[in-house]
Design a protein that fits this description.
Two copies of one chain form a homodimer. With about 190 residues, chain A is mainly alpha-helical. Chain A has eight helices and three strands, in the order H-E-H-H-E-E-H-H-H-H-H. The longest helix of chain A has about 30 residues. Chain A is globular. Chain A starts with 8 loop residues before the first helix and ends in a 9-residue tail after the last helix. The structure holds a DNA duplex (28 and 28 nucleotides).
Chain lengths: ~190, ~190
Amino acid sequence: MSRRSIPSTLSLAILGLVSREPMSGYDLRKIFTTTPMGHFSASPGAIYPALRRMEAAGLIEGNTERGDTLRPRRTYAVTDEGIGLLKDMLSWPVTHNDVVWRLEELMLRFAFMDGLLGRKVSLRFLRELTARIMEYIPYLRRHLEVQREHGRVNGAYALEQGIAKYEATAAWAERVIEELEGRRPRGLS
Amino acid sequence: MSRRSIPSTLSLAILGLVSREPMSGYDLRKIFTTTPMGHFSASPGAIYPALRRMEAAGLIEGNTERGDTLRPRRTYAVTDEGIGLLKDMLSWPVTHNDVVWRLEELMLRFAFMDGLLGRKVSLRFLRELTARIMEYIPYLRRHLEVQREHGRVNGAYALEQGIAKYEATAAWAERVIEELEGRRPRGLS
DNA sequence: TGAGACATGTAATCGGTTACATGATTCC
DNA sequence: GGAATCATGTAACCGATTACATGTCTCA
């Protein structure tokens, strides 16, 4: 795990998508508006500046088509450096803070993992994820007691929703581990 | 549902907390660092400016203690206008976009609902939430098929996690509805 | 030739992050 | 009197949102 990083989750999504196949900003916007791929802003004011930043950082490379016109099309492809950073970020360990604050980003990392890194890395990721969630849940349960003691009925219920979310994610991770290990038939959601 | 609103989720959390009892910025920071109350930045650079904005907007009112010193303590209490806005925001219907992009904010709204509005409003909220989730899941399932057709193994799994999260939330909501209606004993998470 | 999809951009504004700075009170 | 905790703030920077602006291609 190195310290190299990327500013935002949006950038990670862009880097991951562009690493699968070269794309224009418009293609990215289409993906963000028409698929559940993360829920990223498809606003041009977010995507085009992000592409320029990443190009300036050497992570992607733009190729201009129709360059003579006033409305050229630019297709971006990932560079070796971009692939390096992406692989590096996808290899990061799953931390407590990831689980608390960035669960969606973790899922994004997982979604891009199989193309660039092996099944083993996916498995390690899932085991770490499960471990971090299992460490976190008791803390949430203690606060659930506190909410109840204070008579915060809805506060307690809302916490229960959080716990249910983490439990469902841990159960999902365990199921996927079994499937990836071949100990269980695959693909029945 | 009026159009009046507040800029950020952080502001909603602050308004809700301050509406329960007057608090200083420091008190808020402590809550954000030591409890799972949302996961808000406890950074002074976020909280103190937010308090000033909300005071300027007339939603809260600061009371300075120790005003003669260079390090006064300011305790903020909600104003009538603040209560009005909060009640209004808590009464908003649950929309598709809320479910897709702001599930955590929905839970925050729910957590503050019982103090200011009746059990009936909580029940309506939960029914709307369940309905919006049930409408959303088939869309996610269709995209799950697309991921599988494209051979995106991890992509499909990541989507399954999303679906599992929504299913767990819908199940939670249905359970809470029954408990609030008295059709089921309460409080066993 | 017009509609609709394709395609990229900018400017103003705003809130959050990070890092830094500093003072007050309590209690041993 | 020193440590820990209480307590508030600011400045630089940055990325996202919103709204606006505009050009290009395809096909009926």
